[in-house]
Amino acid sequence: MPFIDTGELFEIGGITIHIGVNALSILMLMVFILGIWGLVAAFKNKNLLAVLFSFATVATFGFFAIATIFTFGYPEFGQ
């Protein structure tokens, strides 16, 4: 997967944590941004079910996008 390495952040228990961006995190960030747009639209329309699903989308994809940026999407175990 294409990856842009921006360097090591820290090490926890032998697992090196890096900051970087790969294609998966970029895609998840785009879904996160679209989810925010959907959340705002759902609030404007006062649609409770859409608010719930939009919030779940924003929380899930936002978390995994940030987690992927901080860990490459997988830890390096030195193998």
What's the short story on this structure?
The chain is an alpha+beta fold. It is built from 2 helices and 2 strands, in the order E-E-H-H.
Characterize the overall form: elongated
Biggest sheet, spatial arrangement of strands = 1-2
Number of helices: 2
Mean pLDDT across the residues is 81
Uncertain runs are: none
The SS-based structural class is alpha+beta
N- to C-terminal separation? Answer: 18 Å
Find the count of extended strands (DSSP E, 2+ residues). Answer: 2
Beta-strand percentage?
Answer: 15-25%
Q: Work out the radius of gyration.
A: 16 Å
Order of helices and strands: EEHH
Main beta sheet, described? 2 strands, antiparallel
The percent of residues in helical segments reads: 55-70%
How does this structure look, described?
The chain starts with a strand and ends in an 8-residue tail after the last helix. The radius of gyration is 16 Å and the shape is elongated. The protein has helices at residues 23-45, 48-71, and strands at 3-12, 15-22. It is α+β, with helices and mostly antiparallel strands. Strand 1 (3-12) and strand 2 form a beta hairpin. A two-stranded antiparallel ribbon has the order 1-2. The model has no long low-confidence stretch (mean pLDDT 81). It has two helices and two strands. The longest helix has 24 residues, at 48-71. Helix 1 runs antiparallel to helix 2.
Can you give keywords for this protein?
single chain, 2 helices
